[in-house]
Amino acid sequence: MPIANYPDLAPITRHARAMYSSRLLIAAVHHLRAFEALSEGPLAPSELQAELGLKERPAMVLFPALCAMDMWAYDTDGKLQLTSLGRHLTQGVRPTLTDYLGLEKNDSGVVEMAERLLNDGLRRSGAGGTAYVKEGDGPSPMDDPTTARALTLALAGRAECLAPIVATKLPKHNGHLLDIAGGTGYFSYEWLLVNTQATATVFDRPAVLEVAAELLNEFCQSGRPGAAGVRERVRFQPGDMLTDTLPQTDILLAASLFHDWPTDTCQRLARRFAAALRPEGELWIHDAFLNDELDGPLAVTDYSAQLFWVTKGRAYSRREYRGWLHEAGLTPSSESFETQMDYGLIWAKKDK
Ligand SMILES: C[S@@+](CC[C@H](N)C(=O)[O-])C[C@H]1O[C@@H](n2cnc3c(N)ncnc32)[C@H](O)[C@@H]1O
After folding, report:
1. Between these two residues, 66 and 1, which has the higher pLDDT value?
2. Taking CB atoms and a 6 Å cutoff, what residues make up the pocket around ligand 1?
3. pLDDT tens across 320-340, in order?
4. Mutation test residue for ligand 1: of 134, 201, 343, the one with most atoms within 8 Å of CB
């Protein structure tokens, strides 16, 4: 699959996720009354979070999003304040567009967003579990053959697009790549095409790996130079990354993985992944990152709201990731690479 034959597909995902900005904005103004809460003056994020009755995750989805929309901003003391734009969504300022925005306040997406923000999810959780997440003994869509197939194939286009780019940015190596929660496996297949002596393990749930094996067959039969030889260098390992022993590896790739999980689980995963690295091994994270100031970019705050809606996670900043990697005993690199579709790569190294 040639890399340069199509443009960066980011406009497609940006437009698809733009509805989350609308839901957050209208829910914040009309259901949470978050703009009125700031109308008396700036508040520290923790004070505002307490005043609105929000847990950490919804606050960290909503506050960066409203900053990215230029409705709120941080002042020099790190407090949140209304911008000259955001003031016009309070009742005390004329003209105000509060009631005009209120025309949409009963939209089902807005109402559900408000419920999710106030409860850190829906009050009654779905019996089928959370998309892309397998945790504990509860049911997971990733263990149901039909939904696992549909969810995995839904990610196949994104992975096909990004994997060739990621493969050129990851280290050249003759050793082993662990593609943890690897889904379709495309990131491994493309990396093995570039690293002709290397091997890879795709680790995921059994029902997901059945789909990955079919896609590997297709990949090997694509006629691309070297593709047929990839098959014998890939191993599929079914398991639970939260509890099972992970294979030792030189490079560990966590692609679109941490963003499915809450902060404490991310910290736990960082420790587990660090332990799976051989001396001088590298942990690479491919994801969409909030900026370190937690006020954008808009494409990522929209994505964060989508992740908040469908998974147990949200988008995180590079600073948050590097903090977990450091706590896990790794040395984070200050390097950061862009790939496409608003994703990028950061990495950290294990000592000798
Ligand atoms: C958002 S997908 C990312 C897939 C792939 N890395 C990509 O970028 O296309 C998350 C993956 O994590 C897997 N996963 C979730 N919980 C898991 C667990 N406890 N153990 C192993 N894999 C898990 C899911 O089955 C799913 O394939």
Report:
1. 66
2. 132-134, 142, 152, 155, 159, 181-184, 204-205, 208, 240-242, 255-257, 260
3. 999 999 999 999 999 999 999
4. 134
* Nearest residue to 289 (alpha-carbon basis) of 326, 339, 328, 253: 339
Report CA(274)–ligand 1 centroid distance (Å): 18
Residue of 166, 241, 245, 272 to test ligand 1 pocket, by largest number of atoms within 8 Å of CB: 241
Architecture of domain 141-294+312-349: 3-Layer(aba) Sandwich (3.40)
Tokens for 168, please give them. 């050129």
DSSP characters for 257-313?
A: -GGGS-HHHHHHHHHHHHHHEEEEEEEEEEE-EE-TTSS--HHHHHHHHHHHHHSS-
Mean model confidence pLDDT for the chain: 96
Structural tokens at position 245 = 């022993």
- At the top level of CATH, which class does the domain 3-119 belong to? mainly alpha
Residue 173 confidence class, pLDDT cut points 50, 70, 90:
very high
Which pTM does this prediction carry?
A: 0.96
> Looking at the chain, which residues constitute the CATH 3.40.50.150 domain(s)?
141-294+312-349
The ranges of the chain annotated as CATH 1.10.10.10 are 3-119
